[in-house]
Amino acid sequence: MKSMTKSPLQVARATYQPKLPAALKGNVVLMEGAATESVANQADIKELFPNTYGMPLITFETGEKQTYPAVGVGVILSGGQAPGGHNVISGLYDGLKALNPANKLYGFLGGPSGLVEHSYIELTSEIVDEYRNTGGFDIIGSGRTKLEEDAQYDKGEEICKELGINAIVIIGGDDSNTNACVLAEYYKQKNAGIQVIGCPKTIDGDLKNEMIETSFGFDTACKVYSELIGNIQRDANSAQKYWHFIRLMGRSASHITLECALQSQPNICLISEEIEAKNMTLKDVVDDIVKVIVNRANFGLNFGTILIPEGLIEFIPAMKKLISELNDLLAHNDDFNALETDDEKRQYVKGMLNADSREVYNSLPKGIAKQLTLDRDPHGNVQVSLIETEKLLIEMVAKRLAQLKAEGIYKGKFSAINHFFGYEGRCAIPSNFDADYTYSLGYTASLLISSGKTGYMSSVRNLTAHPAEWIAGGVPITMMMNMERRHGKMKPVIQKALVRLDGAPFQYFAKHRVDWADEKQSYVYPGPVQYYGPSEVCDLPTRTLLLEKQK
Ligand code: FBP
C-alpha cells in the first residue's frame, strides 16, 4: 500500500494511543442487567422484533480470562462523515485481535451498498495503522444506501457466508441503526448465524438517550465550528462593521447550533425547537433579530453574530405547512416539470397552493421561493438543507430595517455577510475526546461480537469522567425505538433526540442570551482543537454534555 504524505501533526497523531475504560484493559467479563422495554409503543415493537426485543443491558467489567472462538467481522460506515470513524475501526480491529489473533475484519466499501454489491477489502494492520486517529471515512468510504429489503439482506448473507463473516458492525446515525436492528432481527429469525452490532455516529448529536450520552463526531465538529465562529467574532469586534449570519449543519435538530452558542456566546442564536414551540412565524423571527440589531445600533454597535440551525425553516409552522404542500404538489408532477420559465413555475405553484400557504410563499424573496420549488430529492421532497436560510434572513432583516430607518426608528448601518459551516468540520482530525470515545466504542463492539450478542448498540457511558472510569457495554437497539409515521406508514424507528427546552443546555443559554445580545465584550474565542497540552484544554467534552451531567 502506498503511504500518504503526512503533516507533522498527522505523524504525531498516528502514534497517539487512545485512552480506554480501565475495565476493558485486562480480562473482561460480561454482566447482564435487567430486561429492557422500548421507549414507547412496547406492544408494537415487541411484535415486530420477537427475537431481539426485551434483551438485557450489558456492561463489561474486569474478570477472569476467557477464550473466544475465532470470528470474521464486516464493518460498514453509513451516512455523513463524523470525526472518529476511523478510530471505531481501529478499536474494533485491536479488540478483535486481542480476543483472538485469528479473528478477521473486512470493510464493506462505499457504505451499506458494499454489503449488497459484495464490494469489500480485508482490513489488515498495514491499512488500519495508516488511519489511526485521522478524520474522514476514506478508509473504506461511506454511503447513504438504505438497507431495508429482504433481497438486500439475502445478498448480504451470501457474502458473509462466502467470507466466513459471523458479525456485521454498522457505524451510523438513527436511521442506519434502525436498519441495523431490522437486519439483526431478520438474521436471527432465519438463524443465519450473523450478528449485527450498531455504533452511534453523527455530528448532528441527535442520536442520544439515557444509555447513549452522545453520538461521536459531535464533539470535534462543534469545536471546529466554534473556533471559526470565535474567529469571526474577533473580526467583527475589530472592524465593527458587519453582521455575520452563520448557518450551521445539523439537519433537523439544533444541538450543533446550541453547543456552538454555548462555546462562543454570539449576539443571537436561533433554536428551531423553541421557534416551533412558540409557534413563531418567519416575520416573528425576523422581528426578534431586528430588535437586537436596532438596540445594538443605539449603542453604536453596528456589528454582531447570529447563529442559525440548518433545519430552521422546517420548524416554522407556516413554512412547514407550505413545504409539506409543495412536497405533495410537486412530487413527480409532470405538468410542473414541463413548464419552462421560472415565472411560469411560480405562477403555477401560486395557483395550486391554499390561501395561507400562498401568502407565505408570496412573502418569500424570489430566490428562496425558487429553491423551495426546484431543489427536490429523489423521493420528491424539498431538500431543506440546501435552502440558504441565512440569505433569506439577511434579505428580510434588511428590508425591515430600511422601513424602520424611513420611520426614523433605526439610525444604524446594516451590512451583512453570510456563512454556512458544515463540511468544514465533518472530517476534522478527531479531538482527544472523540479519538478516545470512538476507539472505546469499536473495542466494545468487538467484545459484544465475541460474546455472541446481536441487535445491540455499542455503548460507552460516564463520559464526563476520565476515560479510565467510562462504562462500556451494550444497549438493545429495540430499547431506543418507537413507532413513527414515515412516507405515510407507521414504522419502527429509533427516537430522534431534538433539543429539549427543559434541558440544562438550553436553560443555560436562555438565561444568558439577553446579556450576549447587548454586551460588547460577551464573545468567547474558543480557538482551535488542542491535541497536546494540559488535560483541561485537550480532553474537555462538549458544554452540552457537561451541562446535561451538571458538571
Ligand atoms: P448523518 O445524519 O448521516 O450523520 O449526516 C449528518 C449531516 O452532516 C447533516 O448534518 C447534513 O444535513 C447532512 O449530513 C448532509 O448530507 P450530505 O452528506 O449528503 O451532503
Task: Give an account of the 3D structure.
The protein has a 9-stranded mixed sheet with strand order 1-2-13-12-7-6-3-4-5, sandwiched between helices. Helix 3 links the parallel strand 3 (72-77) and strand 4 (104-108). The longest helix is centred in the middle third of the chain and has 22 residues, at 218-239. The protein is α/β, with parallel strands linked by helices. The protein is built from 23 helices and 15 strands. Helix 3 runs antiparallel to helix 5 and helix 3 (85-99) crosses helix 20 (432-450). Bound molecules: 1,6-di-O-phosphono-beta-D-fructofuranose. 1,6-di-O-phosphono-beta-D-fructofuranose binds at residues 79-80, 82, 173, 202-204, 249-251, 310, 385, 426.
Could you provide a short overview of the structure?
The protein has 551 residues and is α/β, with parallel strands linked by helices. The protein is built from 23 helices and 15 strands. The protein has 2 domains: 239 residues, 3-Layer(aba) Sandwich (Rossmann fold); 252 residues, Phosphofructokinase domain (Rossmann fold).
Report mean pLDDT, rounded to a whole number. 94
Which strand order do you get reading across the main beta sheet?
A: 1-2-13-12-7-6-3-4-5
Q: Please report the total strand number as a whole number.
A: 15
* Beta-strand percentage range: 15-25%
**CATH superfamily of the largest domain, called what?**
Phosphofructokinase domain
N-to-C CA distance: 46 Å
- Judged by helices, strands and strand pairing, the structural class is alpha/beta
Biggest sheet character: 9 strands, mixed
Structure annotation, total helices: 23
- What is the radius of gyration? 25 Å
What is the total number of structural domains? 2
Bound molecules: 1,6-di-O-phosphono-beta-D-fructofuranose
Outline type: globular
Known CATH architecture of the largest domain: 3-Layer(aba) Sandwich
Uncertain segments are none
Helix content: 40-55%
- Here the CATH topology of the largest domain equals Rossmann fold
Instruction: Please report the first level of CATH classification, the CATH class of the largest domain.
Output: Alpha Beta
